[in-house]
Each structure stands twice: as C-alpha cells, then as structure tokens.
Amino acid sequence: MSSGYATTSAATIPQLVADYLRVLANERAASVHTLRAYQRELNGFAQYIVAHYGLDQPPGNIDHTHIRAYLGTLYDRGLSKASAARALAAIRSWFKWLARTGHVEQNVASLVSTPRLPKHLPRVPSIEQMNRVVDSVGADAASWPARDKAILEMLYGCGIRNAELTALDLQDIHWANEVILVRGKGQKQRYVPLGDAAAQALRAYLGERAALLAAGDASPARATPALFVNLRLRGLGKPGGQARLTTRSVGRIVKRIAILRGLSSDVHPHTLRHAFGTHLLEEGADLRAIQELLGHERLSTTQRYTQLTTSQLTQVYDRTHPRAN
Fold first, then answer.
1. Total H helices, total E strands in the chain
2. Catalytic residue selected from 81, 132, 183, 270
3. Are the C-beta atoms of residues 279 and 245 closer than 8 Å to each other?
C-alpha cells in the first residue's frame, strides 16, 4: 500500500474515497473529466452511507443491499438509469480497489446488476453529408475558416476525440511519416494516419497561425506549442499560457458549421468520430483496424459500430431478397 493512504481499520468512508481519488490521479493518470465524475459519484455514495449509518461505518460492513438502496435514492431524485449506471460503475471501481488493498474481503458492488439501459445508437451523417460539410467551411459559418476546416478534417479524417484534438502540439504532426501522435485516455499514445485532405487543410491553417502569432510582435513570448489556438490568442501573455483552443470551443465550432450546413442540431465533435468509424466499416475496413485507429481498449467498444449499419443491411435485404416484399 502506498504511503499517505488511510490504511488503518479506523479509516472512514470519506477518507477511503479521497485515497482512491488520489490513486486515480497520481498512479493511473485519469483524465480531469474522469476524476470529476468519480469524485461526484463516490462523494455522493459516501455522504449517503455516513448519513444513514454513521461516520464510523467500516467499508467491510457495506453490502450489496446498501448499494441497491443508494441507487434507489437516485431514482427517487429523478435521475435516469444512465446516471445510476455511472454511479454504480464508480462504486464498483472503488470497491475493487478496496478489495485489492485489503480494506474489504470482496467487491460486493459486483453483486449489483447494472441498470438495463435503452439502446440509443447515435445518428451518424452519411458520407455525402460529411463531405458536403467539410468541403464547405466558409466565412459565413466560421470565425476562422482555415482553422475550423482543419478541425473538421482532423475530427472526421482521423477519428480522434475532442480532448485529443485540443491536446495536439505542433510536434505531434509527423509530416514525413504522414501520421499524428495522439495521446488518448489514460495517457495511452497511438499513431493515426494523416490523410491528404487533412494534411492540406493543416498546412493552410498553419500558415495563417504563424502570421497571427507574428503580427505586431515577433518575440519568443508569442510562441506556443499548441496546434490549435484561439483567434484572439487569449491567455498567451500569461505565465504558462498557450492560447490553446478548448474542447468547449471546438464543440461550438462543430455545431455551428453542422447546423448551417443542414445537419441535425445534436451534432457534436464525437459525432464526427462516430462517422469516422461507421464509414470505415461501411467501406469494408477490418474491425480490429478500426479499433486501433480509434484507440479503443476493447473490441466490444468498436463492435457497437456494427449496429450502426443495420439500416444499410435492411435496405440491401429489401432491395435484393425475393421474399422481402
């Protein structure tokens, strides 16, 4: 057990939650989003246990009925099954750590069934729709057309996540090998091919990016490693400031362009990642190759894309099978 953790039998539930969050942050390099979600879910569960059973309740006395009762309170508050499932996933992960570190004998959370969720498959634009959107980025839909076109090309052409896009630095573009170095979840790295269209859009954007940074001030203070920067270079003058574009800004950029080009209002950066995987599959790409490109740890995650082409299979069946009609 690492030093600094609450290792005694007197360790309270809130202390053990805090210990586990430190493990996630320091040893497992969890993302900021993951840490925030686990902190919210585990603190909520800890508060429930303390309120109903007291601060001195040892984790070994918690069983699956307590966890089910807590999930029941989430439903009573109007939370969805998806929210309850997220809470249960965090509690399971915490109990797994408690069992491994000797605080409990077994992971009782594994005895609680995950709420059955309705299957909502994301709506994915067609290949023709995506080509129309990416090819038509102009001043009417974008504050910085060259940058925003490069963003769409990278999201759709490389299939990377929004957070992976905004984390890219100039040095991550390996022009000679025609690949980009992507840092995914859990600090895992992978190389993703850089297609011709994306490379062309990047070069056009980088010329304007260099001009913007040099305008009015050629000092080293105007330099930044960030690949995608905000138009006004906000934050660049501050210590450690990089003017890096945020994921929220990318979301707004994608949604604005998509809506103005006739796509649904629920389009977001991850929609383009779904489109990347779905269109590769439709064009005959191997599922394991798509898994590597998307950076999925499990093939089962990638297999969800096979469900997205069911409508296409139905159309083929209706059009070709003699007993279809």
1. 14, 3
2. 270
3. no
The DSSP line for 257-309 is: HHHHTT--TT--HHHHHHHHHHHHHHTT--HHHHHHHHT-SSHHHHTHHHHTT
- Residue 28 catalytic? no
The question of whether 183 is a catalytic residue gets the answer no
Find the catalytic residue in 96, 132, 185, 256: 185
The 3-state DSSP class for residue 56 equals: coil
> Is 33 one of the annotated active-site residues of the chain?
no
pTM for the full model?
Answer: 0.65
Token pair 């707004």 in the structure block, residue? 252
**CA separation for the pair 232, 235 (Å, rounded):** 9
Residue 273 among the catalytic residues: yes
Catalytic residue among 268, 273, 274, 279: 273
| Each residue's pLDDT expressed in tens, for the chain with a length of 325 residues | 333 444 445 689 999 999 999 999 888 777 788 889 999 999 999 999 999 999 988 999 999 999 999 999 999 999 888 889 999 999 999 999 999 999 999 999 999 998 886 655 567 888 999 999 999 998 888 999 999 999 999 999 999 999 999 999 999 999 999 999 999 877 789 999 999 999 999 999 999 999 999 885 545 557 899 999 999 998 887 887 899 999 999 999 999 999 999 888 889 999 999 999 989 988 888 888 889 899 888 887 777 776 655 555 566 667 676 766 6
Which position among 20, 38, 70, 305 bears the catalytic label? 305
305 is catalytic: yes
Of 161, 209, 261, 268, the active-site residue reads 161
